[in-house]
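Retry 2 of 3 after timeout on previous attempt. Resubmitting structure tokens to design endpoint.
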């Protein structure tokens, strides 16, 4: 039964590993009986409401080396436990990746950014109120998407398949636009493109990312490329606290007057960060004129499939893409 008055976690054992290897071993050993604690801005609410009742909580804050931002040649490496406010204030990040810093600065409130981490922002679960509430939707193991035929003002206009939740991460569109990769420590250590970290519902409706038992996201790596311009724009009902109704992360270079390496990624409109290849193809190889920008903005929403109550997102996304490209043209 859904309990709205619970405000105390069920008993659990707090584990404090001293290395990634130890944390990975603990996570693999305890599997679904454990939860990983990074910033805790979402997990603590889930524990207090008892929507999650793990027997073990693995505290990642005791692991050294996961709060660093380091520029190494043509790469910037960011530890997964770097706080969003720390990223927001980092001079190297602001100089090399302004779009990422803008995204970090738009997450929730200053208090949450002081605790919330980059890794946590990327890996947070669906925020759909049907999934988190007392309904039994597809993602929660039921037989229908309640949002599809219910109140869906904030839901997906791209990529919905049995589930129309949206990716809640502000930093993900910016990082995908910057062609970032993530380093996974676990039974099979690996590095993957950040686009591959996220799982669309058509592939697996039960998860939003590819980390398995024992896997830990340890670092995010952003290429440092001369001449890259980047930005991030978010629309929310309130400038603080609220998740994105829609957002756009964009990055490109201007070489001999024309656009190169254009990457335009939408947030808040799909179950995963949604790369707008159609808009990129319009911009690529062309001068960033008002006509090119308008054509790209229209292409960004050409394949949208809005639900009954979120048709407004089509015009909103078009406006955000237009604004982002206009900013990068200056």
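Retry 2 succeeded. Sequence:
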């Amino acid at each position: 039964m859904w309990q709205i008055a619970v405000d105390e976690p069920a008993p659990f054992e707090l584990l404090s590993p001293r290395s990634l290897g130890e944390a990975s071993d603990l996570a693999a050993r305890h599997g679904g009986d454990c939860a990983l604690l990074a910033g805790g801005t979402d997990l603590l609410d889930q524990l207090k409401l008892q929507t999650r009742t793990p027997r073990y909580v693995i505290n990642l804050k005791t692991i050294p080396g996961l709060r660093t931002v380091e520029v190494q040649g043509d790469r910037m490496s960011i530890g997964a436990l770097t706080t969003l406010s720390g990223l927001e204030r980092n001079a190297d990040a602001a100089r090399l990746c302004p779009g990422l810093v803008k995204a970090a600065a738009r997450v929730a409130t200053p208090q949450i950014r002081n605790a919330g981490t980059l890794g946590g922002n990327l890996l947070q679960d669906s925020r759909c109120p049907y999934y988190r509430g007392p309904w039994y939707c597809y993602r929660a193991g039921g037989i229908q998407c309640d949002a599809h035929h219910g109140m869906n003002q904030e839901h997906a206009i791209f990529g919905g398949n049995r589930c129309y939740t949206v990716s809640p991460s502000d930093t993900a569109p910016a990082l995908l636009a910057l062609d970032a990769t993530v380093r996974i420590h676990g039974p099979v250590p690996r590095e993957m493109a950040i686009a591959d970290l996220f799982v669309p519902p058509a592939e697996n409706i039960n998860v939003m990312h590819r980390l398995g038992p024992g896997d830990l996201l340890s670092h995010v790596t952003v290429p440092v490329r001369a001449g890259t311009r980047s930005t991030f724009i978010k629309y929310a009902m309130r400038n603080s606290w609220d998740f994105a109704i829609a957002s756009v992360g964009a990055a490109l270079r201007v070489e001999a007057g024309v656009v190169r390496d254009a990457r335009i990624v939408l947030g808040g409109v799909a179950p995963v960060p949604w790369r707008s290849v159609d808009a990129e193809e319009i911009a690529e190889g062309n001068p960033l004129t008002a006509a090119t920008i308008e054509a790209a903005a229209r292409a960004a929403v050409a394949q949208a499939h809005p639900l009954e109550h979120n048709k407004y997102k089509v015009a909103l996304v078009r406006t955000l893409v237009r604004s982002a490209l206009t900013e990068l043209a200056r």
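Attempt log closed. The chain has a mean pLDDT of 96.
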